[in-house]
Design a protein that fits this description.
- With 627 residues, the chain is an alpha/beta fold.
- It is built from 23 helices and ten strands.
- Helix 4 (110-119) runs antiparallel to helix 23 (594-611).
- Keywords: Membrane, Transmembrane, Transmembrane helix.
- It holds the Pfam family Glyco_transf_90.
C-alpha cells in the first residue's frame, strides 16, 4: 500500500479548503441579501440572540431586520401567556380570583353562573369581565332605589320578571331591541327580576362630569369588603318586591334631560380627567380646512406603531381627535345627558357612562354583519392585499367638513390615484398628508411615484355610498363636493371580502358592527377605533388583530411589514400575518362565541341586580361548607 506523504496531505487539504471557500462565495453571491447569514447553520456555532417571528413572504425576498412590530408581537405573546395563566377550573378558584380582583364577595347565584359557563366550555379568566366593573362600579355611589326607579320609568326598556322577558318602546318594531331581548331571554331563567334601560341610538348618550364619577368611584372603593359568610344575604329579595310595586303603580316616565345641540366635543370632554389634553386643549370649531396631521409618529407609539391600545383609542388623551373623527366633527344626531343613570348599549366612547352589552349586531344571523357561515378560504388561496367596502359614514359629512371624516381619510390614503395626484400635482391632498422625510423608513418613499405604484399592488378600498348632506334625491350615491375625489363602488358581501388577506375595520357612526365577523374569518383584521366594546379585555392587540392609529399614519408601515415591496426588493412577513389571522380566529372561537356573550350578559345582570337591591352591601354568594 502506498503511503501518503505529509506534503501531499497538505496540498490536498489546501485544495479542499479553497474549493469550500469558492462554494461559499458563489452561494453568497447568488443570495439577494446578507440576511441569509442568519439562516446558515454551521456545526459547533450557535447564536445566542432571540429568534424573531417567522418571516416568510409571498415574494420570497428577505424582510427588513429588527422591525418595531417584531417587538410588539413578542410583547403580545407575553401578555396572552399572562392572561392564560389566570385561568380557573372550578367555582372555588373562580370565587377566589373574583375576591382578589374585585375586593368583595361574588354576587348571589355565582355558582349557577359558573356552572352555566362551564357547561358551555368557556375559558374562565376573571380579567375577561373587567368591562363590567368599569361600567357598574360608579353605581355603588348611587342609592339602589334611584337606580330601580330610573330604570323602570325609562321609555326604552327590557324587563325580566319571573324568568321571562318583555320590552317597552315607542314604536312597533325596533330590530336591535328585539335582538337584545332575545339575548337577555336566553339566560333569563337564571336571572332575578330586573329592568334594563336601552340606548336605541347608534351614538353614546351619557357623559357625566369626571369629578362626579370620581366621587362615586371613591364611594365604591370605600364600600369594598369581603363580607363574612355568616352575614351574607344570598338572595335577591328586596329589589324584586320593589319592582312589583313599581309595575303595579308606575312612575311618570323618567326624563334624563337629553341635550340635542352641538358641537359634541365640548359635551363629551366633561367626562375626561381635568388634567387630560382634551380638557386643557383648544376647542376646534372650523372643520373646513385640511386635518391637523403631520404624518409623523403618533404620540405614545412605539417607533410609530400602536403599543398602548387603550391610549391610542382615547379622545381624552388625543385632543386632535376632535378634528379627525366624525363623532366629534358632526355626528348624525346628538342626544346626550350629564345625568347619571343606568343605560345599556352596544358601544361607547371611553368618557361615556353607558353599561355595555354585547352589541345586537353580534347576536344577529344577518350575513351583512355576521358574514354568514363561511369564514373564508385558506390563507394561501387569498389575494395578497387589502379590501375595504363601506358607506362614507361617521357622521353628517358636508361640503365644509368632509375632509375631517375617518372613512374618507382612510380610503384616500390607500388609494393609489389620490396618492399619485399628491405626489405629482404639487397640490396638497384635501384630507390627508403624505409623511414628510419618510419617518417609517419605507422602501418606496412617500412623495415619489414608486410609492403610488406600490399602493396599487395591494389596495382595494372604495366607498359604496357617499352619504352627502343635503342628499340629492335623484342620485343618492353621489355627492357634488366629493365626487372628484372618490369613485363609488358596488357593495361587496362579506364572504367575498374574505378572499383578501387583510380586512381594515374603521368606525362608522359608532363602532363597526363587522368586527366580530372579521375576527372569526381566516383573514387578518386591521382595527382603528375610538369606541369601547364588551370584549376589549379579552383581545390582545398584535396577537389577535393588528391595531392602527386613528390618524392612519402607521398604515403604510404596517402594510409594508406584512406585504413587503417587491419592486424595491424588500420582503414581507406573510407567515406572521397568517399566524395572527389564524390565532385570532381560533381565539374568537374560544372567547367570542354566542355562548360567551350569554355568559357575559348573565354575569353582568347578576351584578347589576345586586346594585339595584337595598341589601347590596351584604349581598353575595356563600360558598358551600363556609360559614
Amino acid at each position: 500500500m502506498a503511503l501518503i506523504s505529509a506534503p501531499s496531505v497538505n496540498n490536498r487539504f489546501t485544495q479542499l479548503f479553497i474549493a469550500a471557500l469558492l462554494l461559499v462565495g458563489i452561494f453568497w453571491y447568488i443570495t439577494p441579501s446578507f440576511e441569509v447569514a442568519k439562516h446558515i447553520s454551521i456545526p459547533g456555532l450557535h447564536s445566542t440572540s432571540p429568534k424573531p417571528p417567522p418571516s416568510t413572504s409571498t415574494n420570497a425576498l428577505p424582510p427588513k431586520p429588527h422591525h418595531p412590530i417584531d417587538h410588539l408581537i413578542a410583547e403580545a405573546d407575553v401578555e396572552l401567556k399572562s392572561l392564560l395563566a389566570k385561568e380557573t377550573h372550578n367555582v372555588h378558584d373562580a370565587a377566589q380570583a373574583y375576591r382578589a380582583r374585585r375586593g368583595r364577595q361574588p354576587p348571589p347565584h355565582f355558582d349557577e353562573w359558573f356552572a352555566f359557563a362551564q357547561n358551555h366550555s368557556a375559558l374562565m379568566v376573571e380579567d375577561f369581565f373587567d368591562q363590567i366593573y368599569t361600567d357598574l362600579n360608579p353605581f355603588w355611589g348611587v342609592p339602589a332605589k334611584q337606580i330601580r326607579e330610573q330604570a323602570n320609568a325609562f321609555l326604552h326598556r327590557i324587563s325580566v320578571r319571573g324568568g321571562k322577558t318583555t320590552q317597552r318602546t315607542d314604536v312597533d318594531e325596533r330590530p336591535w331591541l328585539n335582538l337584545w331581548e332575545d339575548m337577555v331571554g336566553s339566560v333569563a331563567e337564571w336571572l332575578p327580576d330586573v329592568d334594563l334601560p336601552i340606548n336605541v341610538m347608534d351614538e353614546s348618550r351619557v357623559v357625566v362630569p369626571w369629578e362626579e364619577i370620581d366621587g362615586y368611584m371613591q364611594t365604591e372603593l370605600a364600600s369594598r369588603r369581603v363580607v363574612e359568610a355568616g352575614e351574607l344575604k344570598t338572595e335577591f329579595v328586596a329589589a324584586a318586591g320593589s319592582l312589583k310595586a313599581l309595575d303595579e303603580s308606575p312612575l311618570l316616565e323618567f326624563d334624563p334631560l337629553f341635550e340635542g345641540r352641538g358641537p359634541y366635543w365640548p359635551l363629551a370632554v366633561v367626562g375626561c380627567p381635568p388634567e387630560s389634553p382634551a380638557r386643557k386643549g383648544y376647542i376646534e370649531t372650523d372643520f373646513s380646512t385640511a386635518p391637523p396631521l403631520t404624518g409623523g409618529f403618533p404620540e405614545g407609539s412605539y417607533e410609530g406603531y400602536v403599543q398602548n391600545w387603550t391610549l391610542a383609542k382615547s379622545p381624552c388623551d388625543n385632543a386632535a381627535l376632535q378634528g379627525l373623527h366624525g363623532t366629534f366633527v358632526e355626528p348624525i344626531s346628538i342626544a346626550t345627558t350629564k345625568k347619571f343613570f343606568p343605560l345599556f348599549g352596544g358601544s361607547k366612547l371611553p368618557m361615556n357612562n353607558e353599561i355595555l352589552l354585547p352589541p345586537a349586531m353580534y347576536w344577529t344571523d344577518d350575513p351583512f354583519y355576521s358574514g354568514g357561515k363561511e369564514h373564508g378560504q385558506a390563507w394561501d388561496k387569498k389575494k395578497d392585499g387589502v379590501i375595504w367596502r363601506g358607506a362614507a359614514s361617521g357622521g353628517r359629512n358636508k361640503a365644509e367638513n368632509w375632509k375631517r371624516f375617518q372613512r374618507h381619510r382612510f380610503v384616500s390614503m390607500v388609494n393609489s390615484t389620490s396618492v399619485r395626484s399628491a405626489e405629482t400635482s404639487g397640490v396638497a391632498p384635501p384630507n390627508f398628508v403624505l409623511p414628510a422625510n419618510n419617518p417609517y423608513d419605507l422602501a418606496a418613499s412617500p412623495n415619489e411615484t414608486s410609492f403610488a405604484d406600490w399602493l396599487s399592488t395591494w389596495s382595494n378600498a372604495a366607498v359604496v355610498h357617499l352619504l352627502c348632506f343635503p342628499e340629492n334625491p335623484a342620485d343618492r350615491s353621489h355627492c357634488s363636493y366629493t365626487d372628484r375625489y372618490f369613485s363609488v363602488a358596488h357593495q361587496m358581501p362579506m364572504k367575498e371580502q374574505y378572499a383578501y388577506k387583510y380586512l381594515p375595520d374603521i368606525d362608522g357612526n359608532s363602532f363597526s358592527g363587522r368586527y366580530r365577523a372579521f375576527l372569526f374569518s381566516t383573514s387578518l383584521p386591521i382595527k382603528a377605533t375610538i369606541y369601547q366594546e364588551w370584549h376589549d379585555s379579552r383581545l390582545v392587540p398584535w396577537k389577535h388583530f393588528v391595531p392602527v392609529d386613528n390618524t392612519f399614519a402607521d398604515v403604510y408601515g404596517v402594510m409594508e411589514y406584512f406585504l413587503g415591496n417587491e419592486g424595491m426588493r424588500v420582503g414581507g412577513h406573510d407567515e406572521v400575518a397568517r399566524e395572527i389571522a389564524m390565532g385570532g380566529k381560533a381565539w374568537a372561537e374560544r372567547v367570542l362565541r354566542r355562548e360567551d356573550m350569554q355568559i357575559y350578559t348573565f354575569r353582568l345582570l347578576l351584578e347589576y341586580a345586586r346594585l339595584c337591591d337595598e341589601e347590596r352591601e351584604r349581598m353575595g354568594w356563600r360558598e358551600s361548607g363556609v360559614g
